Amino acid sequence: MFSMKKLLMVLFVVIAFACSGLSGCDSAPVEEETGGETSATLTPGKGVTVKPARATWNTGYFQEALVRRGLTELGYDVKFPKELANPLFYKSLTLGDLDYWTNGWFPNHTSQLPKDFDEKAEVIGYVAKAGGLQGYLVSKRDVEKFNIKSLDDFKRPEVKKAFDSNRDGKADLTACPPGWGCENVIAHHMDVYDLKDHINPVKAAYEAGMAAALGKFNSGEPVFFYTWAPNWTIFKLKPGKDVMWINVPQIIPKESQKPAVERMTVTGVEGTVTDPAKLGFVVSDIQIVANKKFMNANPAARKFFEIFTLPLNDINEQNTKMNAGEKSKKAIEGHVTEWIDNNKEKWNGWLTQARDAAK
Questions:
Q1: Cα–Cα distance between 123 and 127 in angstroms, integer?
Q2: 3-class DSSP state for residue 171?
Q3: Cα gap 233→255, rounded to integer Å
Q4: What's the pLDDT score for residue 34?
Q5: CA atoms of 209 and 31, how far apart (whole Å)
Q6: What's the CA gap between 204 and 173, in Å, rounded?
Q7: Residue 151 forms beta bridges with which residues?
Q8: How far apart, in Å, are the Cα atoms of 331 and each of 73, 318, 350?
Q9: Would the pLDDT of 277 be above 50?
Q10: Rounded to an integer, what distance in angstroms lies between the CA atom of residue 274 and that of residue 259?
Q11: Are 239 and 259 in contact (CB under 8 A)?
């Protein structure tokens, strides 16, 4: 007679042999586990291909690359973005040819949306609330010295003289080159505020003009320039510390600005001479814009889009690195890795919330 121990050993061998056959022993597949979680919960986007786009201005590349990295960590197969002009992107998005971009500026882009936008797409979260700023800045030391509050102060002889580099009797403003949208707004301001005899908008290449302005500032000379955010200019010359945003005398919008006239006055912006500030340009929120069908099918991506946000100064800092020559795809990916390493708790928190949304 077999002992009980020998009997059990024989049964084990028989069962093992049977399960190794072609018919095998049916069993439920087991998910790979990592730290108590399955791979499915860690990578809810696995098997989904994502088609992003990005805008033609490189000050928006950083946030695009960060979001792309986040979706990749969630398991999505994210393609390198197509670079498109605004109207073409929004049309492609509503057609379903693309899934999202991080470069929506609202209300600035509202007039460029196709008629079926609300049916096919949506605006999500805030990459930078009130991050799309434009306006005029003046060296802080001179704001304080001459008590400058608005463009109107450049009508005062002592102010004009201090900012008159070429001695033509007008204050020199580093402005926008011909063809830029801001050139038309500045021309409008020169007209409606009666500034043509007091301010000279210098329309040379903007990068060269701002490099000259930075040199003047570092030499202790007054500076007066137009800029927008995000931009390297207000990382090198920080509002509130080095320069101040000044007002227009009163809000007199161009026809194209009238639908968003309430956004031409802004509160809570660091480095303004008054709060609220009348910047004279429409202030936009930088937001993610996505296809609704993609959003509804991907709750993890939706949650990541909803909670992703960046301090404006972080974007400006990265833009400064690009302005210094770090513009390659590899360099930008390096900036992304560096930012994540410096913000690990925040980043991991975003990923956790996105994964939880997909459960």
A1: 11
A2: strand
A3: 29
A4: 45
A5: 59
A6: 11
A7: none
A8: 19, 10, 24
A9: yes
A10: 24
A11: no
pLDDT of residue 16: 46
Measured in whole angstroms, the distance separating CA 92 from the mean position of its chain's CA atoms is 20
In one letter, which amino acid is 271? G
The structure tokens listed for 325 are 């020559």
Q: Which of 198, 207, 217, 183 is nearest to 150 (CA)?
A: 198
Q: How far apart are CA 144 and CA 180, in angstroms?
A: 31
DSSP state at residue 278: E
156 contacts 146 by C-beta, under 8 angstroms: yes
Handedness of CA 176, 181, 185, 187 (dihedral sign): positive
**In this structure, are strands 199-202 and 171-174 parallel, antiparallel, or unpaired?**
parallel
Q: In what helix (H) or strand (E) does residue 295 lie, and over which residues does it extend?
A: helix 292-297
The whole-chain average pLDDT of the chain stands at 90
What is the C-alpha separation between 177 and 170, in angstroms, rounded?
A: 19
Amino acid at residue number 206: Y
pLDDT for the residue numbered 14: 41
Q: For residue 137, what are its two tokens?
A: 């800045």
Instruction: Report the first-to-last Cα separation within the chain, whole angstroms.
Output: 55
* pLDDT for residue 341: 98
Structure tokens at 337: 């890795």
Amino acid at 244: M
- 140 neighbors 148 (Cβ within 8 angstroms): no
Q: Can you list the pairs that 257-266 forms with residues at least 24 positions away whose Cβ atoms lie under 8 Å?
A: 257/185, 257/281, 257/282, 259/107, 259/110, 259/111, 260/107, 260/108, 260/110, 263/107, 266/130, 266/133
Q: What domains can be seen in the chain, in order of their start residue?
A: 44-131+285-357 (3.40.190.10), 134-282 (3.40.190.100)
